[in-house]
Every structure is written in structure tokens, then in C-alpha cells.
Amino acid sequence: MTHQKSFPPFVRRQVYWFSVLAVILSSFSLLVAAEQEPSAEDVKKERLRLLKQFVDELVLITPGKGKYPKSFQMGSSSGEPSEQPEHEVTLTQDFWIAKYEVPQNLYEAIMGHNPSRWKGPRNSVEMLNWDAANDFCEKLTLQLRKHQLIGEEELIRLPTEAEWEYCCRAGTSTAYSFGDAAQKPGDEGKQAKILDEYAWHTGNAAGNDPPVGALKPNPWGLYDMHGYLWEFVADPWHDNYKNAPSDGSVWNVKTKNPSHVARGGAWTDRYDRLRSAFRAKVSPATVSPALGLRCVKAKIAKVKKSEN
User: Fold this and answer.
1) Which of 83, 88, 142, 211 can bridge 75 by disulfide, Cβ–Cβ 3.0-4.6 Å?
2) What's the half-sphere exposure (Cβ side, CA atoms, 13 Å) at 285?
3) What confidence tens digit (pLDDT) does each residue in 173-204 have?
């Protein structure tokens, strides 16, 4: 017969209370997890809410009607070589553009993940390349059609470069949508106190982690067209505007350069890179906490039949 070791009473009491504590902590952890993990139904409701919010925040742009000019001067004769030649563009189709850059909560609701470095539900989504931005637009289109929030003849896409600059300028011909000057007298270096009211840039972004729309909009009610994040557009990169289309369409002629265009400047940039005409060349693999997107809703373009 083996002798069974008996622990002193105080040890048995400690083991007992440790066991009780473990059960309590385990139950609490399960309770917290249950509270934090939304149900499938809650996820669907939140996604629908965000989809409706996205549609409600679209701004209708009607070139040639009301305050929206039919034509504008794109580029800058006094800017960078890539902004030249300055040329007239005439837009003929109405479209809707998002009032804000795509926020992280909408991106996550559609794509199932949030790649952003600087997290915040209404912060602009970042850390995605051009393909990911385009993929988001395609999936958002499907979700909006599914819930009958847009028609089958409509789609969500990236703006063309001409549409983007047209909306950024908002009827102005100055360097920025609020005028030619970003700095006040006495501003030095990266300071740009006039721009501070409209844009997040390297002179005022330190210590800020803002939601979309925290600063003043441009004259057409669009926020963060200058600064916050660079915004992808649909066009591939061309070194200048020689032979660029004059109707606002995507400049999608054959090009050996797979890079794309981003516009608007970002919180990482000096004020002079936030001008309405400034362009950035972005390689296909580039992801950055300074790169995001803004969406357009438009009619699906009809393919013209060739005449025989």
C-alpha cells in the first residue's frame, strides 16, 4: 500500500482559491470577448449603415450647370515639368465625388481588414497600393448594388486625373482652392498658416491623428483635397501632359510605365506639394501611411461601336 502525500491545510486553501480565481478570470475573459465580438447580424447592420452614409456624403458635380464650369485649365505653366503644358479640359458627364477620403471603418466593412498604420474608424484609410484601391472600388460597387443604393448602370471608381483636379480647383484658377498664398507674412520654413485651415501637411500634422473632414472644405464642400493623404486616381503616369485627352477621360493609351498618379499631397509634405496642379508618380508596389483614396460614382461608360 502506497503512502499518499498530504499537503498542509494552508497549501490546500491556496490551491483552492487559485482555482476559484482562475475560473473567475476565465469567465470574465469569455464575457469580455462576447461583448467585444459583434454578432453576424450586427456586422451586417453596421455595413449597411456605412454604405448609406457613403452614398449620403457624395457630392453631385454637374459640369456646365450652375456653379460648375464646363471647362477648366488643367496643369500649371509655372509649375513642375510634369504639370505642363497647361491645357483646357471640357467635362461633359455629370458624376458624384465623395466629400471625404475613404475612412477606415468603411474600408474594413467592405474588405474585411484595415491595413492602416494610424488607426481610427473615421481616419482616412492608408497603407494600400493602387490595385488595392481599385479592388475596393469594385467590391464597394457590388455591395451598393446588392442593397439597391446605386443602379446597375452605375459604379464606384477612382476619379480620373482631370476629374480630380477639376474638383480640387472647385472653379478657381489659383495655386490652391483658397488662393495663391499658403503662407502668412512671417511664416518660415514649413509653416503655412493660411493652408493650416484647410489641410494637414508637414507644418501642422505633428501630434494630430484626425478624422476626415476636421478642417475647412474647398468651395464645393470637399474636404482634404489639399493634404491629409495623397489620393490615387485612375490614370497611369505620364511624364507631362503632351497629347493628354481634353474631355476629362482616363489617359489610358499604351504606356510601358506601370506607375500611377496620386494627387493632393499629404501630411508628410511641404505646402508647395499640396498645390491643385501638383502630381506624384507612384510605383505599383508602393504602400505608405501617406497614400489613400477618394471615390467617384458615375454612369458606366458606353462603348462606342466602330463604324464600318
Assistant:
1) 83
2) 0
3) 999 999 999 999 999 999 999 999 999 999 99
Query: At 279, is the secondary structure helix, strand, or coil?
Result: strand
Q: Domain map of the chain by residue range?
A: 39-299
Residue 35: pLDDT band with limits 50, 70, 90: low
Task: State pLDDT tens for residues 159-174.
Answer: 999 999 999 999 999 9
Pick the CATH number of 39-299 from 3.90.1580.10, 3.30.70.2190, 3.90.1150.10, 3.40.50.2000: 3.90.1580.10
Lookup: cell for 191: 509653416
Report how far residue 128's alpha carbon sits from residue 130's, in angstroms, rounded to the nearest whole number. Answer: 7
- φ, ψ of residue 155 in degrees (nearest 5): -150, 160
Phi/psi zone of residue 78: left (φ > 0), alpha (ψ -120 to 50 degrees), beta? alpha
Amino acid (one-letter) located at 240: N
